[in-house]
Amino acid sequence: MQNTLDKIIVENLSFSYEKKEILHKISFELKQGDLLGLMGSNGSGKTTLIKSLMGFLKANYSRYLIFDKEFKKLNISQISKLISYVPQASNLPFNYTLFEVVLMGKSPHFGGVFGCSKDDINAVNQAMELVGISQFKDRNFSHLSGGQKQLGLIARAIVQDCPIMILDEPTSALDFHNQILIWKVMHSLSKNGKTIIICSHEPNHIFWFASKVLAIKDGKTLAFGKSSQTINEILLENIYGSNYKIGSLANQKIIYYSIN
Q: Helix or strand or coil: residue 188?
């Protein structure tokens, strides 16, 4: 019998909206510590897949297991202790400070932002330092830049301390330095046992940091496997069109656009 205690297994996940099929029989399997890069062009179904995996959308599937637990049998409290989620953006209606927003990541463990322990406060400070936003801890969250807000949401997900993290375009509002910083942090977390799924429009980041890749086109699986073996010029052409090449720079493989 297959051991599923340390795996995420998704089989034949499909989703339709008003009789229009958006996802068609998506299947993949991850083990603990995998970092999956989800890639595809705009409108390919990446965000719909993420929302389906979170339970925000009611998808159909043959099987969806999280560490031997059937997802459809989990309640919200159980899910919040298994999966932390970083959306593309967030606008909070109240005047919380950045510190308070990051502290909200601890709410599944103690039921609110009151009565937190010294360990909780230390965890918040460490997460903010990890993503480089400690200096903004007392600022009103709504007054931060888009990039600073996004780093705050990532810190909140880290503080939530779940075995699984799912991030939807987490670096889209960040400058190049912070994009690489976040991918390095995610890579380090995966090496320490977290299972991570990241949706990204930057194939180089997936190529460099992700252990596995799931490429989607028109709601269907185009390719799934180890990033180093699966991302190639044929796949890039299938997703984005022609003129994308893979070369080497300082012994590092890199995807680039050829103007010739």
A: helix
Alpha-carbon gap, residue 105 to 156, rounded angstroms: 5
DSSP conformational letter for 150: H
E strands in the chain = 7-17, 20-31, 35-39, 63-66, 69-70, 83-86, 164-168, 195-199, 212-217, 220-226, 244-249, 252-257
Q: How far apart are CA 41 and CA 64, in angstroms?
A: 25
- The residues that bridge with 168 in the sheet, in sequence order, are 199
Residue-wise pLDDT for 59-108, tens only, equals 999 999 999 899 999 999 899 999 999 998 777 777 899 999 999 998 87
User: Which among 42, 13, 23, 18 has a CA at the least distance from the CA of 201?
Assistant: 42
Please tell me the distance from the alpha carbon of residue 33 to that of residue 73, in angstroms, as a whole number: 24
193: left (phi over 0), alpha (psi -120 to 50) or beta: left
DSSP string covering 50-111: HHHHHTSS--B-SEEEETTEEGGG--HHHHHHHEEEE-S----SS--BHHHHHHGGGHHHHS
SS3 206: helix
